[in-house]
């Protein structure tokens, strides 16, 4: 079995430097030295001594959470669940907003690792970016090597513990219900194309429409910012470019609220002329006029389960939990007009 001295010798560094890297010390280590140590750990299949690690670092009482934007109602609900479980475990939560900037996300992971947090939870969509995904996986693997724990919410690409919302199923539910009510000319108000969550939700919607004999053409999809203003802008573009739409599917509720605002400004009756549906079932969905039909995801539970996995006993293999989506029908959805 390899020892710390073996790792240091293989990497060409001092045992003290190897220890700093492996134990997640806050003392600075040059990037090239860090990479050599981590490569040696992988080559020698070195397993750190848990007792030695406890002696080498203080008790970890803080957990780090990286979200896209905690002011977004989706992430506010997720964070409620995350914080509830962390508090029950006597842990303090550091919340980092990446604002959907992959580089900032990488920086936060490195900063949290330097702070020797007990666990890191990444909450929110992954990105269609192979280079970023590989760099993130490398940083998370290095953190886990030092005894840290990682869990993710809504990401396929991390090979560890994950809690997944049933986004594709939710898209299918919307497509099936729209067809049942006679809607075939449907436009989609989508978020940023780089987000894997958008792909998942759109895949489910497309599949349901195609199975019903009404494939969704690309010209009926508009990608925009994942917020109210983006929803209004995308809805306006669709109505101008594709006359005769009877329904708009917004891939989150904030965008749906923007679409409702745009339709009201144009004196388009909802649902009399155009139905509008959303995704997530934010608290505001029941309060807007007309009340929004949407897909409900158990967001607080998603956050709670992710933190439970991150702070609970480690498993021999990655655990993936999928929480279901349900359709909530309200006043914004009606039959297709004649």
Brief synopsis:
The protein has helices at residues 4-11, 15-22, 31-44, 50-56, 73-88, 102-114, 130-145, 167-180, 196-211, 228-241, 253-265, 299-311; strands at 62-67, 92-97, 119-123, 149-153, 161-165, 186-190, 221-223, 247-250, 275-277, 294-296, 320-323, 326-328. The strands form 3 sheets. The chain has a 6-stranded parallel beta sheet, sandwiched between helices.
SSE layout and pairings?
Blueprint: H1 4-11, H2 15-22, H3 31-44, H4 50-56, E1 62-67, H5 73-88, E2 92-97, H6 102-114, E3 119-123, H7 130-145, E4 149-153, E5 161-165, H8 167-180, E6 186-190, H9 196-211, E7 221-223, H10 228-241, E8 247-250, H11 253-265, E9 275-277, E10 294-296, H12 299-311, E11 320-323, E12 326-328
Parallel strand pairs: 1-2, 1-3, 3-4, 4-5, 5-11, 6-7, 6-8, 8-9
Antiparallel strand pairs: 10-12
Helix pairs in contact: 1-2, 1-3, 2-3, 5-12, 6-7, 8-9, 10-11
Shape: elongated
What is the CATH architecture descriptor of the largest domain? 3-Layer(aba) Sandwich
Going by CATH, what is the homologous superfamily of the largest domain? Response regulator
- Could you say what the CATH topology of the largest domain is called? Rossmann fold
Low-confidence stretches: none
Mind describing the biggest β-sheet?
6 strands, parallel
Please state how the strands of the largest beta sheet are arranged side by side. Answer: 2-1-3-4-5-11
Look at the structure and give the mean pLDDT. 92
Distance between the termini: 75 Å
